[in-house]
Specification:
With about 140 residues, this protein is α+β, with helices and mostly antiparallel strands. It is built from 7 helices and 4 strands; from the N terminus they run E-H-H-E-H-H-E-H-H-E-H. Helices cover about 40% and strands about 20% of the residues. A 4-stranded antiparallel beta sheet has the order 2-3-1-4, with helices on both faces. It binds ribavirin triphosphate (RTP) and magnesium ion.
């Protein structure tokens, strides 16, 4: 399996509860390396662009409001099969369906306030990383 990079967000419900370190510990224990990281306040425009794929969905407005409601930590994670591996480590979108030991099972509050984002494919990972990081901010 190839060395891959994926894009991660620690969402406002998690930063609000001071869970950045606890989530990073789960990420690192799973063998993923945090090769870029910064804490930002997302603008509404950034959040709308980031989740544009969901713009026709009924929860879109609520999702954008949530993503700009507090600080987030954006990250690039690197590892063997990092994209699929991080989706596994995150757990199901709805924490009620998430497996034991996953980030969402451990920390998520609800299907909306679910603590983390992770890219779902190589194409989206590349686009998402480029939205938030310059090449020289990623140190593998
Ligand atoms: P993400 O994109 O954030 O990594 O999450 P995901 O792939 O597991 O889920 P996705 O279907 O892409 O949904 C994106 C985010 O929208 C919010 N959501 N709310 N209220 C709802 O029914 C609902 N459904 C989705 C969640 O924050 C989800 O992570
Ligand atoms: Mg998604």
């Amino acid at each position: 399996m190839a060395l891959e990079r994926t894009f991660s967000i620690i969402k406002p419900d998690a930063t609000e509860r001071n869970l950045t370190g606890a989530i990073n510990a789960v990420i690192e224990k799973a063998g993923l390396r945090i090769v870029a990281q910064k804490r930002i306040r997302m603008t509404r425009e950034q959040a709308e662009t980031f989740y544009a794929v969901h713009k026709e969905r009924p929860f879109f407005g609520e999702l954008v409001d949530f993503m700009v409601s507090g600080p987030v930590v954006v990250q690039v994670l690197e590892g063997e099969g990092a994209i699929a591996k991080y989706r596994e480590v995150m757990g199901a979108t709805n924490p009620a369906n998430a497996a034991e030991g996953t980030i969402r099972k451990l920390f998520a509050k609800s299907v909306g306030e679910n603590s983390v984002h992770g890219s779902d494919a190589p194409e989206t990972a590349a686009v998402e990383i480029a939205q938030f990081f310059a090449g020289n901010e990623i140190v593998g």
